[in-house]
Amino acid sequence: MDERRQITRVILAATLLFALVLGTALGVSAHEKKSLPGRIEAALGSADTARAERLIAHLEDGEEKTAYENRCRMLEAAALLESGDWSGAASLYASLGGYEGAEEGYHEALYKLAGQELDAGDFDASQRRFESLGSYRDAALQALRAQLGKARTLAEQGQIYDAFLLVSRLSDFDEAREYALELAEQICGKRDLEAAVAVAQDLSSEELARRAALKARREALPHGIVDVGFYHTVALKSDGTALACGDDTYGQCEVGAWHDVKAVCAGAYHTAALFADGTVAAVGRNDEGQCETSAWRGIVAITAADYATFGLTGDGTIVCCGFNDYYMLADWPAVTSISGGSYALAALRENGDALISHESARSDALTELVDIAVNTGYAVGLREDGTAVCAAADLSRWHDLVAVSASSNLILGLDAQGGVSAHFFRDGAGEDFSAPGDVVAMAAGGTHCVFVRADGTVAAWGENGRGECDLAGWDLF
């Protein structure tokens, strides 16, 4: 009996001891888990990211773990930025996506990289990187300085004409303008930019006069007064009201209530208007959100693709709504004009270089332009000398142009005399083509085109199955 009691006591003692050890272990484990956030905070507070990472690995809550990992990466990115590893910092900030402060750090890292490239004389790379920063700090000014640096290097290498032609395009940059005048004096013996351009481009006085006349004609043309959708037409009257006709399935022709309109544009099944106060309204199909423009402010120009609307702001940036495969717009700086078509957007910068959303429409020839039109798959650019460039079509016979328009079916070119030329992409499509004379504005569409004459009357060519060409009573001026 005593022996049994002894065994029972031993078993009970062992059980109690095991329970005590287990309880202590569990308590220690629970305490350690509870204290992990505090220890991680201490590690992050001392910028000991290596220790913080080791501790973070033991967290079980996925959301809490991710939050601490992001904070840790932000500290590491900041350290890289401080140490001068701007490429590493940029990569790490980029990996953080929309985490608070990551975008600012990413932009600062790119700004530092661009400055390093500028100091090293890699002017093209520096210019591109500064331009990608848009309105961040003084990136736009630094991009101009990169171009000026390139011009100075060209001049030092004896390429005076190339240096002058590059720097003469930077008209709004005082330092560049002064340098252009210095080079002009070297080229032609006087501080005369036009005379130096003539020499550098081997232009006669007659050619300079012709180009000046073309420029005056271009600037006198009305802009944003007519556009076409798939099966509708919209136009702007001189009193600030709008007209529309054709397919109204989605209400895209409901423009009668608009007043104080400065410009109009049309997508496939929607219509937009820019008002004098810089706001934008849109009507019609809104399945992709292409009519969500009510929050836009400070807009100076508008255009549309089939299922998107674009606005150009006064600071040269672009806003967009609708079908949005235009991720690159945030990085398009210093834009002076925009043109949409089908699923593409094109923009011009002050130096005449084109920015195009779709790779299929890009071309190395699209530089030194004064106007551009785009459609999916190609773009057509207008040069100062009145010629047109397009990788998709031979337009070498066109001369004295002052405007271009593009669609999936054809390209239109308007000359200084008000005549219109057309290049069709499908054989036989233009057999019955005719355009009125004395044209001052035009819009090319997939199935119909519209022309505004100098007297304000409007004419159309093409299919009229839904009344899109019923413009007989329209008088815009």
Overall mean pLDDT score?
90
CATH class of the largest domain: Mainly Beta
Strand content: 15-25%
**Which of globular, elongated, flat, extended, rod-shaped describes the shape?**
flat
Quick rundown:
The protein is α+β, with helices and mostly antiparallel strands and 477 residues long. Helix content is 37%, strand content 24%. The protein starts with a helix and ends in a 15-residue tail after the last strand.
Written description of the protein model:
The chain has three domains: 2-102, no CATH class; 138-203, no CATH class; 219-462, Regulator of chromosome condensation 1/beta-lactamase-inhibitor protein II (Methylamine Dehydrogenase, Chain H, 7 Propeller), CATH 2.130.10.30. With 477 residues, the chain is α+β, with helices and mostly antiparallel strands. The protein has helices at residues 2-45, 49-56, 62-83, 86-95, 102-119, 123-132, 139-156, 160-167, 174-188, 193-200, 205-220; strands spanning 226-228, 232-236, 242-246, 261-266, 270-275, 280-284, 299-305, 308-313, 318-322, 335-341, 344-349, 354-356, 369-375, 378-383, 388-390, 401-406, 410-415, 420-424, 439-444, 448-453, 458-462. Strand 13 and strand 14 form a beta hairpin. Strands 1-2-3 form a three-stranded antiparallel sheet, with no helix packed on it. It starts with a helix and ends in a 15-residue tail after the last strand.
